[in-house]
Predict the structure.
Amino acid sequence: MESASKDQLLKRIARLVRQNKELEEQVKKLEREKERLLETTEKYRLLVENNELKGVRVAEEEKSLKFNMVTVLFADIQGFSGLTEGMDPAMVMDELDEIFFEFDRIIRKYHIEKIRTIGDTYMCAGGIPAKNITNPVEVVMAAVELRQFLRDFEAGRRGEERIWNLKIGIHTGPVSATVSGKSKVSYDIKGRAVNTASRIQGVSDRDSILISVMTFELIKEFFRCEYYGKLPVKYMGNIQMYQVQGLLPELASDRNGSVPNKSFRVKFGLIQFTDIQEVILDRLEKELPDFLFYHNVKHTVDVVTEVELIGWAEGCTDEEVLLLKTAALFHDAGHTVSYDDHEYQGTLLVREMLPEYGYSEEQIDRICRIIMSTKLPPRPGDLLEQIICDSDLDYLGRSDFIPVSNTLYEELKAQDKITSLNDWNKLQVKFISGHQYFTATARRLREVNKKLQIERIRSLVTEN
């Protein structure tokens, strides 16, 4: 029995030893699995962090913007259908590169944003990134120039022979734009307007510029167009389309209607003025000192309105009215820099900004002279200077003279340029009594009421 018990004990010990070894092996296996899981976990942790950082970078580098009025252009430039047996395909590709290079130059000239090229298709859009109301005209003008360039390019290379097939489609409407990049910003636009422009380009004929009725309504005062037909578009019904022939004869300096003349630039400038006005008024709103109770945005708008009214009444030309409105817009903009020499500061702003909007050096010089003529006491040298001087002091003969003049008093008082309201009223009587309107229109509209204002101010003066 003793021997049997001893054998059982030995067997049990051997089994326990064996189980212990198995457990040790299992522990080692689990430890190896744990290490593997820890490595895997670390990899996933790093991957998640990288993805999160990437997501942050994408959020930082890409943002989506909405634009209510963008004019999208698709130009399809196919050359291979015109290849003959003796032509070198590599030469044709080189020509395509030359054409795209020139297209880039032309659209930059009209402040149009290149979106991308897709094979033989060139895509660009006006109205981004800077929103403006002139982009339909600018894009169609660019399209006319693109077409004329390609005509001249082929005529210079191969005479009457043609291998390039240019088809252009244009549509105006809202888009969403994804902005990406930092050192070099790029835009990707999407929306129904993009799809519609592409559809229009798809049905356009060779050497043709086809536009939607939406674009036509915005450019018809500048271009000769012919009705082309209707295009069924999903969710929009049938869209009427027009074929652009070129500039209107009275706005072109060449027979092809592709080179704008001075009349075009003036007509375009009158529309473009709205964009310039938005920029300047926004700047005044943000940068004018708080103590300018009189020389504020309202005063600038009043003067812009008045120069146009008097200008037309005095028989000014379209260009003269444009120069007057531009001068009126900038005449007090110098207050953002300095009070006492704000007229001069305004001329500096004119010389800085207006070349970007296509104003000639001669026009800019004239605008600066008009602005400087408003410096007190006014000494206008010609009709346009007389008009702005009358417009600048239009309030002297208006029914709201008293409340307006009080804002000027508050402005001067805030700068310690006047001591009391009574002194101000004395100064007003002296100034108004010696003032005269220069134009027949202002005298007819304001002179009688101005005399009444003198009596009203005199009644407020108290003698010490």
The longest strand covers residues 63-78. The longest helix spans residues 2-61. Strands lie at 63-78, 113-118, 121-126, 165-180, 186-190, 208-212, 223-233, 237-247.
